[in-house]
TrEMBL record:
InterPro entries: BUG, Bug_dom1. The keyword Signal applies. Pfam families: TctC. Belongs to the UPF0065 (bug) family. This is Tripartite tricarboxylate transporter substrate-binding protein. Gene3D superfamilies: Bordetella uptake gene, domain 1, Periplasmic binding protein-like II. Residues 1-24 form the signal peptide. PANTHER family: BLR1237 PROTEIN, TRICARBOXYLATE-BINDING PROTEIN. SUPFAM superfamilies: Periplasmic binding protein-like II. It comes from the Bacteria.
Length: 328
């Protein structure tokens, strides 16, 4: 037998052995709790979706899904940690439009590639965006809000959860459309930013509906419009941006689960199946819908749908952010 053939046989044997070990590991998966990284502070919209979905996934998987909040750099600190985690299925991340799309053009030295460094598990929820302001903001509707912001942007403060966050990018788009440059005030998460808005420490922000239904209903903040085609059942009195006179502002965020690159396919399949069961569960759906979430249905679910979404969203937000020119 030639040396080349012997080397090939040994290599094939090693591959077969590795595949056998991987199969043995995945057959017993999961055998311990799973950590789901949330790259923002507790209490924010991504955290809320993660806890609701993770609760049901725990039942399906037979192991607890533990939420770990890892804040910083608009969610990219947590995403970087997830990228570097062991690809054994015991660490996943609840990413979103900011961490896995808008961060690409915003952070030139981003430590990960959303397309190539993760295994997509599936979309958990879509989250429509609202234009919000402190409760005593001097504008009765969106038209007056737009006029006031244009006339006073130099003295106004806009809250957000950090560069790269959904609250930052969606308000960046709004400010670009209005051609205004308020002072942007970053917080370590949407929860703290919302608290500042309710405390009249900042003037306005853009936020996901999941985070603000009770506050809008209770009158502690004002909602001028929702940036979708139709009104949301959770806040039926809030007009769409088209109805309110700003049709060009149309945007919705999303939350989705990712595993580190190289996580075995059978493990990713189990995670995806658990997510699918959570989104089909009546009680889980009710909790998410009451918060205003847009739940993925049909071909919008699953691994391939998320992979396609990430690619298209990276392209979309790269164009938006380049046109908006943040920091200029």
């Amino acid at each position: 037998m030639s040396f080349g053939k012997l080397t090939a046989l040994l290599a094939a044997g090693c591959l077969a052995a590795s595949a056998g070990v991987a199969l043995a590991q995945t057959n017993g998966y999961p055998s311990r709790p799973i950590t789901m990284i949330v790259p923002f502070a507790a209490g924010g919209p991504t955290d809320v979706v993660a806890r609701i979905v993770g609760d049901h996934m725990s039942k399906t998987l037979g192991q607890q899904v533990i939420i770990e909040n890892v804040t910083g750099a608009g969610g990219t600190t947590g995403a970087t940690r997830a990228k570097r985690a062991a690809n054994d299925g015991y660490t996943v991340i609840m990413g979103h439009m900011g961490t896995h799309a808008a961060a690409v053009p915003l952070y030139p030295n981003l430590a990960y590639d959303p397309v190539t460094d993760f295994e997509p598990v599936g979309v958990a929820a879509g989250t429509p965006i609202l234009i919000l302001a402190k409760k005593d903001y001097p504008a009765k509707d969106l038209s007056e809000f737009v006029k006031h912001v244009k006339a006073n942007s130099g003295t106004l403060n806009m809250a957000h959860a950090g560069v790269g966050s959904v609250s930052y990018t969606t308000c960046l788009l709004l400010n670009s459309i209005l051609d205004v440059k308020p002072t942007d005030v970053p917080f370590k998460g949407t929860g703290p930013a919302l608290n500042a808005l309710m405390g009249n420490q900042v003037d306005y922000m853009c936020d996901q509906i999941v985070n603000v239904v009770s506050q809008v209903q209770g009158g502690t903040i004002r909602a001028y419009a929702i940036a979708t085609d139709s009104r949301n059942p959770a806040l039926p009195d809030v007009p769409t941006t088209k109805e309110a006179g700003l049709p060009e502002y149309k945007v919705s965020a999303w939350n989705a689960i990712f595993a580190p690159k190289g996580t075995p396919k059978p493990v990713v399949d189990k995670l995806s199946d658990a997510l699918d069961k959570a989104l089909s569960d009546e009680a889980t759906r009710k909790r998410l819908l009451e918060l205003g979430s847009d739940l993925p249905e049909g071909d919008r679910r699953g691994q391939q749908a998320l992979a396609s979404l990430v690619k298209s969203e990276v392209e979309r937000w790269s164009k938006v952010i380049k046109a908006a020119g943040p920091g200029n």
